[in-house]
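can u pls check wat happens w/ magnesium ion
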Amino acid sequence: MSGGLLAREDELAAVARAVDAARAATGTVLLLEGPAGIGKTTVLEAARRVAGERDALVLSARASELDRAFGFGLVHQLLDRAAKPELLVGAAAHAAVVLDPTSGAAEDAGFAVLHGLYWLVANLAEQQPVVLLADDLHWADVPSLRFLEYLARRIDGLAVAVVATTRPQEPGASAELLDELRTSATVVRPGPLPREAVADLLTAELGAAPDAAVIDAALEATGGNPLLVSVLAREAASAGVQSPAQLAELGARGVAPAVERRLRPLGAGKSAAKRA
Ligand SMILES: Nc1ncnc2c1ncn2[C@@H]1O[C@H](COP(=O)(O)OP(=O)(O)OP(=O)(O)O)[C@@H](O)[C@H]1O
Ligand SMILES: [Mg+2]
C-alpha cells in the first residue's frame, strides 16, 4: 500500500510495463476498464507519478460529457501544450489544422490530419519518451477517439505509451471505436477491493479498526467498490455508526445520494449510478 492506493499491485505492474515499453520504443496502449468508482482514475494518477519518475513527458486529458461534441477536444487537451511550431513540420504539418490556432479549425478526422497528429507524437517521442494519459474515454469526442485508435495501431515502434480509462457500456459512448481501440490495447480491469483493503479504508475513516461483522456489512453493501466504500465509511463516521446493522442500513440508503451527486454532475447518466 502506498499513498492511499490499496490492492492495485497488478495494475501498477501493468502501468510500469507500459511506461518501460515507451522507454524502450516498443510503444503500447494500456486500457483501464471498469465501472464507476472502481478506481480507474486513481490508477491513472499513479501512472502519472510512475511516468514522471522515469523521465517520460506526461501529457494528459480528461474527456467530459460537456466537451463530447467538440471535435478533437481531447486531442487539444493532450497535445496543445506540446505542439511547438518546430514539431509541426514534415508529415506533422498536417496536424496544424487542428492544433495551430492561426490555421483555421478542422473538426473532421481525415487521414491526413490523423497522420499529422501521429507524426507530431512521433516527433515528440524522438526527444523523450511520451506517456499520454486519457481519462474517461467513454465521453471522448469521435475525432479524438479516431486519433487514439490510429495511433494505437502504429504505436509499436514509438517511444510512446497511452494509458486510458473507460467505463464499459456507458450510454452514448462510441462503442465501436472503443472496441477497435481495445483490440490494439492491453486491457486491465481493476476489481473490487479485497476484504483487508475495505477494512483499511474503514479504519482510516472511523479512526479505529472495525469489528469483523462491520467489515462484512460494508463489503456486502458496497461490493468492494472503493468509491462506495469510502462514501459509506465517511457517512458512517459522521453518523457515529457502531453496529453492523446500522452500517448495513446506511449502506442500503445512505450511500446512494452521495454517489448520485458524483455521477450525475450534468443531470445525465442515471443508469450508471444505479448500476454502481
Ligand atoms: N485502490 C484504492 N485504494 C483506496 N482508495 C481507492 C482506490 N481506488 C479508488 N479509491 C478511491 O475511490 C474513489 C473512486 O476512485 P476513482 O475516482 O479512481 O474511480 P473511477 O473508476 O475513476 O470512477 P469514474 O468511472 O466515476 O471516473 C476515490 O475517492 C479514490 O480515492
Ligand atoms: Mg474516473
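The pocket of adenosine-5'-triphosphate (ligand 1) is lined by residues 4-8, 34, 36-42, 136, 167, 226-227, 230 (CB under 6 Å).
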